[in-house]
Write a structure and sequence with these properties.
heterodimer; A: alpha+beta; five-stranded mixed β-barrel; 3 helices; 5 strands; globular; B: alpha+beta; nine-stranded mixed β-barrel; two-stranded antiparallel ribbon
């Protein structure tokens, strides 16, 4: 105990300063109790860590066009499930299901993606407890 | 036995890889299934230790720390933390310390020799060296860094690693950060068939925690696989910041 007290006195300014992040937290950013599904035309696909990302142009029932972004697992994980950097291409129509962003943005975490023929992209969908 | 022959025999025993030491070499990927930690490993945890249920992919929501008791300073720091802080160019690729990385849901490779063991993690391309040659830790004021300074030894079939000199970083990825006075002890053990690796991660940090924390972690051996490059690209956060600025919902 004395040793602990001495350490605490000797280094009071060492603690808890500076950036102390990891990748952003799924639990903090996304609502795992809800799901969202969007269908649209891909405008961009990033395949970089810490997360891949699909940008889509989505037209709703009223004809209003909006831009959505779907964050994926880390590409190191995607690669082990059959994804490549060109598995999704701009101009392609796809459907993405996932978990919505807690802040209400048109932003989600991808659980699965299917092409226009309903075929799953990659070998398996992703879960809340999947890596990265 | 003549003295010269006896000395040679002793020298051979001392320099050869110890046959009794388990072979941890290989590629290990996190086992995301829940499992009951071995009772004897639990018994080796020091008193006043809470076992965190966030090993692998699970994460605690904001304001929840799995039973860890925070000091007032750590509590204030955690309360002031904002999720948006993670999604900045400066922070999104800032690697966590070994306290968080060791249990992250990414694979790692082990390269084992008698005097040195290297852990190569996929997560943020992190690498750590565990010195097995009997050296101690450097002086307290020696430089700290995210992987810390690790020394190890064998206790029967268990690899025991003691790590100090770890830079301040996150514990639970939701605002609870440890100080650079944190001290970690890990115990690694192979399953009987050599296909699973189980470990306890235990840590104490009097500047941050009023009790101690631990995690149980389990990995599966995957022969032939290897760690991929991570090469974190911080411009990813620009996409998040851009979301909602065009077109609306």
């Amino acid at each position: 105990m004395l040793k602990r007290a001495l350490i605490a006195l000797a280094v009071p300014a060492l603690s808890l300063t500076g950036p102390a992040q990891a990748h952003h937290s799924f639990a903090v950013y996304f609502d795992a109790s809800k799901s969202v599904s969007i269908t649209g035309t891909v405008t961009a696909f990033r395949f970089t860590n810490p997360h891949g990302l699909v940008v889509m142009s989505v037209t709703d029932a009223q004809g209003t066009v909006s831009e959505w972004r779907a964050e994926t697992n880390a590409p190191v994980v995607l690669t082990r499930r059959g994804w490549t950097r060109d598995v999704i291409k701009p101009g392609q129509v796809i459907t993405i299901e996932g978990w919505p962003s807690r802040d209400g943005k048109p932003y989600l975490r991808l659980r699965s993606a299917k092409d226009a023929n309903g075929r799953l992209i990659g070998t398996a969908p992703f879960g809340v407890t999947d890596a990265g | 036995m003549r003295p010269a022959i006896w000395l040679c025999a002793v020298a051979l025993v001392a320099s050869a890889p110890a046959a009794a030491e388990p072979d941890l070499n290989g590629f290990w990927n996190i086992d995301l299934n829940r499992f009951d930690p071995p009772a004897d490993l639990t018994a080796k945890l020091p008193p006043d230790t809470v076992i965190l249920e966030d090993a692998g992919a699970p994460e605690f929501p904001q304001g929840e720390y799995g039973g860890l008791k925070l000091t007032p300073d750590a509590q204030a720091h955690a309360h002031a933390w904002k999720p948006a802080d993670q999604m900045t160019l400066a922070n999104v690729c800032a690697a966590p310390s070994i306290i968080y990385s060791v249990q992250g849901p990414f694979p790692f490779e082990i390269y084992q020799t008698k005097d040195m063991i290297v852990f190569k993690y996929e997560y943020f391309d992190q690498v750590r060296v565990i010195f097995m040659d009997g050296r101690g830790h450097p002086p307290a004021d020696a430089p700290h860094y995210k992987m810390g300074h690790s020394i190890g030894h064998w206790e029967g079939d268990e690899l025991v690693i003691d790590t100090t000199h770890i830079s301040a970083s996150t514990i639970t990825n939701n605002g609870l950060d440890h100080s650079d006075q944190i001290h970690m002890v890990e115990r690694y053990r192979l399953s009987a068939d050599g296909k699973k690796l189980v470990a306890t991660e235990w840590f104490e940090d009097p500047l941050t925690l009023e009790n101690n924390g631990a995690r149980f972690i389990q990995w599966d051996r995957h022969p032939g696989q290897y760690v991929y490059p991570y090469d974190c690209d911080p411009t990813f956060v620009l996409e998040y910041q851009q979301a909602g600025r065009q077109g609306g919902q």
